[in-house]
Amino acid sequence: MKMIESMKDKKVLVLGLAKSGVAAAELLHKLGAFVTVNDAKPFEDNKEAQTLLHQGITVICGHHPEDLLDDGFELVVKNPGIPYTNPIVADAISREIPVWTEVELAYLVSEAPMIGITGSNGKTTTTSLLFDVLKEGSKKPLIAGNIGTVACGVTADASADELVVTELSSFQLMGTESFKPHIAIWTNLFEAHIDYHGSMEEYAKAKFKVTENQTAEDYLIYNADQKIVADFAQQSKAKLIPFSSNGRLAEGISADDTQIYWMGEPYLEQSVIALPGKHNLENVLCAVATAILVDCPKDAIIKVLKIFTGVKHRTQFIGEFNQVKFYNDSKATNTLATKSAISAFSTPLILLAGGLDRGHSFEALRPYMSHVKVVVASGETAERFAEFARSCGVKTVVLADDMTDAVPKAFELSEAGDTILLSPSCASWDQYPSFEKRGDLFIEAFEALQK
Q: Helix 47-54 crosses helix 18-30 at what angle (to 10 degrees)?
């Protein structure tokens, strides 16, 4: 770990605990900062705060004092989920106090090169696949960010001969200033989190921060098939590595119907890839390009591609019962993700959809609904999704109370050879604390069918 001097004797407020807040507070304390933690959970119920207090860190719990920043803080490190409209965050900005997320700290102390992966969809699959490829290729990868351990907790212990593979959300990237991964990956951009960012333009700017500080010594792997991403990429100072799944490119990495190309030359046959779907082909292209850039052996790349079948809750095959296959894609919280999931299958589909109603249109799914034979809709958008499905010509549309109700209803309507796909196209927070919980209940309901 780089023992940076810039934090020594600096008064720092860590706003919000959870994993990122705890890791940031502990790291700042080690770096010699005077750390105060503020968290909404009462102290008597707050094990994290109690632990930090025993370490000599000041804790303020149970409320957020309006005059908190009057204590002379020079830096605020906030939980990524706390919006910039939060009164304390807004006050810090008005006072011109820097507001970071722990990703900035992770970069500042890291001795290891960092690989930053962002995008509206595909981040987790790309991160997981890349980690497995680099591990097989003996490149000493560490995994961090949304998918693994908090980034600053990983980089604090990383050595110069390791690689930190980091999944990054727009929320995390907004709170960075000098963050500069050696390799940045921007998988795609689709309307999401507008309630947080305020506009699509601001959301895109937050994603662009993955490459904003890169130089000609660094690399940006970006989606050449999406104009908005390609246009933003042209503003980067990094070496540009475009990717496309729509045919051979002269530069970067690309794919046609059968082959993957590196710099316009055949690199490997797609037949070795176990992961289904065109959207996953894009994730494969990102991972393979990165592996090539860090000199990972080709045989290691191919070995992993042959066995990697996906990540939990992301078009995850969970099993087959009575000749009906079940796939869990609970992570599909927008129409782009559901479109990609539907497109990955040619068998008749029974689609489980619906969830939190943010007012988003489902129209982007219309061209892909032709082989959806049944829709089982639930959640706040159940009626609206059901109406959309009927307008697409889906003959059988039913409503369900929740996942426990939806799965048996879907199975009753299935026939041998069908696929039951949970791909909600909506966030989970109307009924569940997370998409993971929604996916776990889908899996439990599948298992209950077999008892």
A: 10
Q: According to the annotation, is 125 in a ligand binding site?
A: yes
CA 111, 151, 331, 219 torsion: positive or negative?
negative
Residues 35 and 112 both lie in one domain? no
Q: What is the largest CA-CA distance in the chain?
A: 67
Verify that 337 and 425 share a domain, yes or no: yes
Torsion of CA 180, 294, 337, 402, to 10 degrees: -90
Q: Are residues 157 and 259 in the same domain?
A: yes
Residue in the block written with tokens 């690199």? 267
State the Cα–Cα distance between residues 239 and 112, nearest whole angstrom: 20
Residue predicted with more confidence, 442 or 81: 442
Which among 44, 22, 34, 125 is positioned nearest to 71, based on CA atoms?
A: 34
121 among annotated binding-site residues? yes
Give the count of beta carbons closer than 10 Å to the beta carbon of residue 185: 33
Domain count, the chain: 3
Q: Please check whether residue 425 is in contact with residue 333, taking contact to mean a CB–CB distance below 8 angstroms.
A: yes
Q: Check whether residue 437 and residue 335 sit in a common domain.
A: yes
Domain boundary (100, 127, 148) is at: 100
249, 398: one domain: no
CATH code for the domain of 287:
3.40.1190.10
Annotate 7-17 with b (16+ C-beta within 10 A) or e (fewer): beebebbbbbb
299 vs 194 pLDDT, higher one: 299
Task: Note whether 89 and 137 are same-domain residues.
Answer: no
CATH number of the domain that residue 325 is part of: 3.90.190.20
DSSP string for 323-389: TEEEEE-TT--SHHHHHHHHHT--S-EEEEE---------GGGGGG-TTEEEEEE-STTHHHHHHHH
pLDDT of residue 263: 98
Digit-coded pLDDT (tens) for 123-157: 989 999 999 999 999 999 999 987 778 999 999 99
**Shared-domain flag, residues 156 and 294:** yes
Report the distance separating Cα 139 and Cα 161, nearest Å: 8
> What is the pTM (predicted TM-score) of this model?
0.80
Asked whether residue 6 is marked as a ligand-binding residue, the answer is no
Q: What is the domain extent for residue 395?
A: 316-449
CA 11: distance to chain centroid?
32
Question: Does the annotation list 146 as a binding residue?
Answer: no
Could you tell me if 231 and 373 lie in one domain?
A: no
The model's pLDDT over 167-186, given as tens digits with 9 standing for 90+, comes to 999 999 999 999 999 999 99
**119 among the known binding-site residues?**
yes
Q: How many CB atoms neighbour CB 142 within 10 A?
A: 23
Q: How far is C-alpha 127 from the geometric centre of its chain's CA atoms? A: 9
**Confidence class for position 309, pLDDT limits 50, 70, 90:** confident
